[in-house]
Amino acid sequence: MYESAHFVSSKTLSGFGGWPMPDHFADYPPQRQILSYLTSFADAYGLSERIEFGTAVRDVAKNADGTWTVTRADGRPSRHAQVVVCTGSQWHPNIPEIPGDFSGEIRHTVGYRSSDELRGKRVLVVGGGNSGCDIACDAARAADHAEISMRRGYWFIPKHLFGRPVDTLAGVGPRMPKWLEQRLFGTLLRIVNGDPTRLGLQKPDHKLFETHPTVNSMLLHHLQHGDITARPGVLRAEGRTVHFTDGSSNDFDLILLATGYVHKVPVAQAYFGDEQHPDLYLSSFSREHEGLFGVGFIETNSGAYQLFDAQTQLIAGFVQDTHRGLPNAARFARMIRSDRPDLTGGLRFVDSPRHTGYVDSSAYTKYVTKVAAAMGWPTEGRPPAMPAVRSKETVA
């Protein structure tokens, strides 16, 4: 995790049910506060003593009787009726080929940690996602020269509007249909941000919300102040020179690829498939392998922690009813195999690997709430049984 990383969802909408983020946290918490929050959550719910820290899992294998064997890196096995894989799939970098022969350094941002790595260098960041824009801002401040290359135009959403975290505005006023929300908020962004082509950016080739949101207030600031230059896609490289699709070129020492990740779950790849996004019911339940679940595989347009909370509540409800032999469990098992709801919320997401299996968070939450209510399961965690002392971490 790089030092300048902050959440792109606000603290208001990022906490687990029953354990909201503390009031003294920043609107968009930095990584140190997120670590503090997760530690306090684990302590409050008695999880810390149940976690095997410093232990890697080598393999998850299905047994003939339907149980699962988890083998640790040191060879120790354990058998379980159910396994929840929470490793996520954003660990294995997608590294596109840059035609030509670049003589400088090329590396993926998965290994980037600090702006100190950029000092004294001419840096090109490739990619317009949230991490790419964050790191481009680091380069704007620390590098000798900084540029960012994007193949397409994006909608840049500021972190604050009208003095409030932007993701909290959706709950203000009456609920609107998605097409109207796109139109009104898109117009507002055009007023706030102006014409992106003035800054060397491309106009978006898609409607608002049809790609993963880029929530960043600082990239446009640095472009406006000449701290960084925007370029279109990379065409080829020759020596230290990078040529772009608009015919322009420049020399660089370092190319940082903020180009996303490929789906891999090495500990259980055979059960999650080779596709970019695994076919999991509600992004959590294996359709083919009973007793196998995943948390952290959902791709959506909002903060993830509240959705993780809802997923874990569903998993817990299903496991509990399965152990009790209740009819709900058999009913839900049939839904896992056959129910394929449309969770796009009416949005037409762009055709890209990142958006394979992508869901609209509002549509997802609405459907999960409906399913959970029918089963009698909660969708939000409860406060811990015993009060716990929250972390004393303070804002520097």
TrEMBL record:
It comes from Streptomyces aurantiogriseus. Keywords: FAD, Flavoprotein, Monooxygenase, NADP, Oxidoreductase. InterPro entries: FAD/NAD-bd_sf, Flavin_mOase, Flavin_mOase-like, FMO-like. GO terms for molecular function: flavin adenine dinucleotide binding; N,N-dimethylaniline monooxygenase activity; NADP binding. Pfam families: FMO-like. Belongs to the FMO family. Belongs to the FAD-binding monooxygenase family. PANTHER family: DIMETHYLANILINE MONOOXYGENASE. The keyword Flavoprotein applies. This is Flavin-binding monooxygenase.
